TrEMBL record, chain A:
Leucine-binding protein domain mapped to chain residues: 53-371
PANTHER family given in the database record: BLR6548 PROTEIN
InterPro entries: Leu-bd, Peripla_BP_I
Organism: Planomonospora venezuelensis
Record-given protein name: ABC-type branched-subunit amino acid transport system substrate-binding protein
From TrEMBL, chain B:
Broad class of where this protein is predominantly found: membrane
Transmembrane segments: 12-29, 59-77, 89-112, 139-159, 180-205, 225-247, 259-281
Name of the protein: Branched-chain amino acid transport system permease protein
GO molecular function, a single term: transmembrane transporter activity
Family classification: Belongs to the binding-protein-dependent transport system permease family. LivHM subfamily.
Top-level taxonomic group: Bacteria
Taxonomic placement: Bacteria, Bacillati, Actinomycetota, Actinomycetes, Streptosporangiales
Keyword Transmembrane: yes
Keywords, alphabetical: Amino-acid transport, Cell membrane, Membrane, Transmembrane, Transmembrane helix, Transport
Location(s) in or outside the cell: Cell membrane
Length: 428, 295
C-alpha cells in the first residue's frame, strides 16, 4: 500500500469513527428507553426508583414582548410537574423533568427553531412552545418526528395539528364570544378590530369579523405594529371612526397606549381585549383610569384567584409569588400532556408514537375544575373537538391579578354555529 | 384642520425625542467621526434610572440626576473602550459601540425586569386646551424641554471655551492639538453630552406609556433623522428629528385615507422613505457639509 493510500485509509477510519459509525454511537444511551425517556432517575428525583421522561421548554424568557407572561408560565409548569412527581409520577413508573432542557426563544422564530434543534433529540415532547409564529417555525419538524407539544398560544391553527395539545378556546372563538357578549351588554352598531398581524392578531380579528357579520354590525379591521409609540394610527382610526366596540389583540403596553390615548382624545366606546392584552401592571400606568372605565378582557380561562381545586393546587404549589395569570395559563396548559403521558405509560408503548396515539384517544381531560373536561377533546375532528367556551373579566384593583370574572364560561351564538374548517386568520 | 394640527403636535412631541437622540449622534460624530451605536443603550439607561429615582427624589430632580448619571456612564465607557482606539479606523470603533450598546442594554434590562416601568412623570395622558386644540401635556413638555436644551447647547458651543475647543477639534483635530486643545477632553465631553441627552430623550419616550425592554428601538429612528439633517450639522439634527416625527405622525393619521394602496402601516417605514428621498436630492443631508475632493 502506498503512503498515499495509507493516509486516505487512516483518514477514512478517523472520519467514520468521528461520525459514530465504528464506535457504535447509534446504540441507545445507557438506560435510555426511547428518545427523551430513561430508566435512570431524573436529575432532581423525588423517587430514585422511577425512570425519567424529559420534556423541553422553549419560551420567551428574557427580552421578547411576552417575557412578563412567559417567565411565570415556565415557573408554573415546573411547579405543576413537581407536584405530579410528588404524587407518584406518571403511572408509578416515571417522573417528569421540565428543567433540564429550557431554552429562550426571544420570541424570534429563527431562534426558536435553532434551540429546538439543540434539544429535540433529548426530549420526548415539549412541555411548552411559546408563541404562534415561533411554533409555526418548528411545526413541520414536530409533525415529522411525532413530537407532542403543549403550546403557549391560542391560535386556531392548533385545532388542526395532532401534535399540538392546546388548552382553552382559540383567539378566534374568544373574539366571537367577546362580540356576542358586547351585543348583549352594550348593543353596539359598529365594531373595529385593532390587531397585530399574523396568527395572533388576525385570528382574533377574523373571529370578531365573523361575529359582527352574524349580528349585522359594521366591521373594520385596523392592523397595528408593535411598540407603544407606533400606535398613533390605531388611535387616530379609533377617535376618527368612533366605533361602539373595539376588539384589541396586542401586547399589554400597546393596549394601554391605545386605550389611554383614545380615551384622552374623548373616545367613549368599549374595549374588549384578548387574554394577552392584560397585565396587572397596567393598573399602575397613566392609562389606568381609562382602562377601568372602558376595558374588559376576554379570556380562555379563569384568573389566578378562582375557586377551583386546580387553582387552589396551583396557588399552594407556587407559594408566595406575585400573582400573575401567566402562572394560571402555564398550569392549565399542562393537564392534557399529563393525561396523555399517563395513557401512554398505561398502554405500554413508551415512545413518541405511543404518546401521539395516546393524545389522539383523549376525549376529555381532568383539569381539576380549571376548565370543563370537554376542553380536552383531542379525539374528534377539528370542528367537533374545538372548545368554544370563554369568559369575560373586568379590571378590578382589589383582585390578585387585577381582573375578576363578569361572565363565566359561555359559548355565544356565533361560536356555537361556526364551522371550524380551517385556521381563522386566513379568512380575515 | 383640527386633526392636522393635533397630529402635528403629536409629531413635534415625538420628533423632539428623536431630535435629542440625533443631537447625541451628531455631537459624537463631529468630535470623533464615529457614529456611536451606543445611543439606544444610554437612552434606555436614562429612562430606567429616572423610573427608579423618581420615587424618592421626585420626577423633576430625577431627570437631571439621571442625565448626570448616564453622562458619567458614557464618560466611563469612552475612557475604557473608545479612547484606546484613537487612530484606528472609524469602522472598527463604530463596531465597538455596537458591542457597548448590547452590553449596557443587557445590564439595564436587569433593572427593568419583566413588566413595564413607569417613569413617574407628572403629565401622564392629561390634556390641555391650546387654542381649541386638545393637546397632551407631555408633548408640550417634550417640545419645551428640547427647545431649552438645544438653546443651551448652541450657547455652549458658541460662547464657552470648551465649546470653542470642541468646534476646533471637529474642524481639524491636528491643528486643534497644535493650538493646545486637549482632543481627548473633547472626545470625553462629546460622549458625556450625548449620554446626557439620550437619557433625557429616553425619559420623555417613557412618559405616558412607561419603558420596557423593547423601548430602545425608538432610538433607531434618530438614524434617519441625522441622515436627513446632515451627519455633521447640529441644527440639522434638530430639524431632521422634528421632521421625521411630524412626517411619521401625519402619515399615521392620513395615509389610510389618502393612499390606502401603500398598505396599513406605511408609517413604520416613513422615516426611512424620507431619508432615501433626501439622499437622492442632497446626498449630504439638508444641512450637511458637502465633501469636496479634487482629483
Amino acid at each position: 500500500m502506498s503512503k498515499r493510500h495509507l493516509v486516505i485509509a487512516v483518514s477514512l477510519v478517523a472520519l467514520l469513527s468521528a461520525c459514530g459509525v465504528i464506535r457504535g454511537d447509534d446504540e441507545d444511551k445507557k438506560g435510555a428507553v426511547t428518545t427523551g425517556v430513561t430508566s435512570e432517575p431524573c436529575p432532581i428525583p423525588v423517587d430514585r426508583n422511577k425512570g425519567c421522561i424529559y420534556l423541553g421548554t422553549i419560551s420567551d424568557l428574557t427580552s421578547g414582548p411576552f417575557a412578563a407572561l412567559a417567565v411565570p408560565i415556565t415557573q408554573a409548569q415546573k411547579a405543576f410537574w413537581n407536584r405530579v412527581n410528588k404524587a407518584g409520577g406518571i403511572g408509578g413508573k416515571y417522573e417528569v423533568d421540565v428543567q433540564a432542557y429550557v431554552r429562550d426563544n426571544k420570541y424570534n422564530p429563527e431562534t426558536h427553531n435553532q434551540v429546538y434543534q439543540e434539544i429535540k433529540n433529548n426530549v420526548l415532547g415539549l412541555a411548552q412552545t411559546l408563541g404562534s409564529p415561533t411554533t409555526a417555525a418548528i411545526i413541520a419538524d414536530l409533525k415529522a418526528n411525532n413530537v407532542v407539544s403543549a403550546p403557549a398560544s391560542w391560535t386556531s391553527a392548533w385545532e388542526f395539528e395532532d401534535v399540538i395539545v392546546e388548552t382553552g378556546a382559540n383567539y378566534c372563538v374568544e373574539s366571537m364570544n367577546a362580540v356576542d357578549y358586547a351585543v348583549e351588554a352594550y348593543k353596539p352598531k359598529t365594531v373595529m378590530a385593532v390587531h397585530y398581524a399574523g396568527d395572533y392578531g388576525a385570528d382574533a380579528a377574523a373571529g370578531a369579523k365573523a361575529a359582527a357579520e352574524r349580528n349585522g354590525l359594521e366591521f373594520t379591521a385596523v392592523e397595528t405594529p408593535s411598540g407603544a409609540t407606533e400606535q398613533g394610527r390605531a388611535i387616530t382610526e379609533i377617535t376618527k371612526n368612533k366605533p361602539d366596540l373595539v376588539i384589541l389583540t396586542t401586547g399589554p403596553a400597546d393596549a394601554a397606549a391605545v386605550i389611554g390615548q383614545s380615551a384622552a382624545a374623548g373616545f367613549k366606546g368599549r374595549f374588549i381585549g384578548t387574554a394577552p392584552t392584560w397585565n396587572p401592571a397596567l393598573l399602575k400606568s397613566p392609562a389606568a383610569p381609562a382602562i377601568l372605565a372602558l376595558y374588559e378582557q376576554s379570556s380562555p380561562g379563569k384568573p389566578w384567584g378562582a375557586d377551583t381545586p386546580g387553582h387552589k393546587a396551583m396557588r399552594e404549589a407556587l407559594g408566595n409569588v406575585t400573582p400573575s395569570d401567566g402562572y394560571t395559563s402555564g398550569w392549565a396548559w399542562s393537564y392534557p400532556l399529563k393525561a396523555a403521558l399517563e395513557k401512554m405509560v398505561a398502554s405500554g408503548d413508551v415512545s413518541r408514537k405511543g404518546l401521539l396515539a395516546a393524545v389522539k384517544s383523549l376525549n376529555t381531560v381532568d383539569y381539576e375544575g380549571m376548565l370543563p373536561p370537554e376542553a380536552g377533546n383531542f379525539a374528534g375532528d377539528p370542528n367537533t373537538a374545538t372548545f368554544r367556551q370563554t369568559l369575560i373579566n373586568k379590571p378590578d384593583t382589589a383582585a390578585p391579578t387585577g381582573v375578576t370574572i363578569v361572565k363565566d364560561f359561555y359559548t355565544g351564538p356565533t361560536a356555537q354555529s361556526y364551522t371550524m374548517d380551517g385556521p381563522c386568520f386566513g379568512k380575515l | 384642520m383640527k386633526g392636522v394640527l393635533e397630529s402635528l403636535v403629536r409629531g413635534l412631541g415625538n420628533g423632539s425625542v428623536y431630535a435629542l437622540l440625533a443631537l447625541g449622534f451628531v455631537i459624537v460624530y463631529k468630535a470623533t467621526r464615529v457614529i456611536s451605536f451606543a445611543q439606544p443603550a444610554f437612552m434606555i439607561a436614562g429612562a430606567v434610572a429616572v423610573s427608579h429615582l423618581a420615587g424618592t427624589t421626585g420626577f423633576y430632580l430625577a431627570v437631571p440626576l439621571a442625565a448626570l448619571l448616564v453622562a458619567g456612564l458614557a464618560l466611563g465607557v469612552e475612557r475604557v473602550a473608545i479612547r484606546p482606539m484613537v487612530g484606528r479606523p472609524v469602522f472598527v470603533v463604530a463596531i465597538i459601540t455596537l458591542g457597548i450598546d448590547v452590553v449596557v442594554r443587557v445590564v439595564v434590562n436587569g433593572f427593568i425586569g419583566l413588566d413595564v416601568r413607569q417613569v413617574g412623570d407628572p403629565w401622564g395622558l392629561s390634556l390641555v386646551e391650546v387654542g381649541g386644540l386638545a393637546v397632551q401635556q407631555r408633548w408640550i413638555a417634550m417640545l419645551l424641554t428640547t427647545a431649552v436644551l438645544v438653546s443651551l447647547l448652541f450657547a455652549f458651543f458658541r460662547y464657552t471655551r470648551y465649546g470653542l475647543a470642541m468646534r476646533a477639534a471637529a474642524f481639524d483635530q491636528e491643528t486643534a492639538l497644535a493650538q493646545g486643545v486637549s482632543v481627548g477632553m473633547v472626545f470625553a465631553l462629546s460622549w458625556a453630552l450625548a449620554g446626557g441627552l439620550a437619557a433625557i430623550a429616553g425619559t420623555f419616550a417613557g412618559t405616558g406609556q412607561g419603558v420596557d425592554q423593547l423601548t430602545w428601538i425608538i432610538a433607531l429612528k434618530a438614524l434617519p433623522a441625522i441622515i436627513v439633517g446632515g451627519l455633521d450639522s447640529l441644527g440639522g439634527a434638530v430639524i431632521g428629528g422634528l421632521a421625521i416625527g411630524v412626517v411619521e405622525s401625519l402619515v399615521q393619521s392620513y395615509q389610510g385615507d389618502l393612499a390606502p394602496w401603500l398598505g396599513q402601516n406605511f408609517a413604520v417605514v416613513t422615516p426611512y422613505a424620507v431619508m432615501l428621498l433626501v439622499l437622492l436630492v442632497r446626498p449630504y443631508g439638508l444641512f450637511g457639509t458637502p465633501e469636496v475632493e479634487r482629483v
